[in-house]
Amino acid sequence: MNKEERLGFLIAISLVLLAIGGVVVFKDARLANNEDLSFAEDIKPLIIKRCAPCHTGSYRMLPNFIKYKKAFMYRSSIRERVWVLRTMPLSGKMEESERKTIKDWVDQGGKK
Ligand code: HEC
């Protein structure tokens, strides 16, 4: 490689690294900043994934969060158990980003 080729190569490498960095930062920003969450689109799928079968109607003594009305009614308790105390789900199996989605939904007022 001559000098100019080497410079071109360095610039190309830099651009690729910048692009990768940009994607990573963008993903982080989205995670940090869940905007406009709704029960139907964001929360219900999480309830089905993480809170079934216990809170989806199988056990009559437990609140059923598949219904918006119930989930909304229990929203502060859900936030407390999932985000603050972390005692739910019982198995502890839940991604940090999923916990944050629940918390953000409650903090945003629990939109339907
Ligand atoms: C394996 C079963 C199981 C799973 C999965 C589970 N829970 Fe629970 N949950 C329970 C049981 C049993 C109780 C009652 C005992 C207690 O309060 O700890 C409970 C209680 C609760 C309460 C308090 C209800 C009340 O009457 O005040 C909340 C809120 C809650 N769970 C939220 C969740 C959320 C949100 C998820 C999913 C992210 C989840 N749980 C997953 C079994 C489960």
Can you summarize this structure?
The protein has 112 residues and is an all-alpha fold. Helix content is 68%, strand content 0%. The chain is elongated.
The helix/strand order is HHHHHH
Radius of gyration: 21 Å
How many beta-strand runs? Answer: 0
Structural class, by secondary structure, is: mainly alpha
Query: How far is the N terminus from the C terminus?
Result: 61 Å
Helix content: 55-70%
Low-confidence runs (pLDDT<50, min 5 residues)? none
The major β-sheet equals: none
Shape: elongated
Bound molecules: heme C
Please give the structural blueprint:
Elements: H1 3-32, H2 39-51, H3 54-58, H4 68-73, H5 75-84, H6 96-107
The structure holds heme C.
Residues 50-51, 54-55, 62-63, 74, 77-78, 81-82, 88-90, 94 line the site of heme C.
What does this structure look like?
- It is a single chain.
- With 112 residues, the chain is mostly helical.
- Helix content is 68%, strand content 0%.
- Helix 5 packs antiparallel against helix 6 (96-107).
- Bound molecules: heme C.
- The site of heme C has 15 residues, from helix 2, helix 3 and helix 5.
- Residues 50-51, 54-55, 62-63, 74, 77-78, 81-82, 88-90, 94 line the site of heme C.
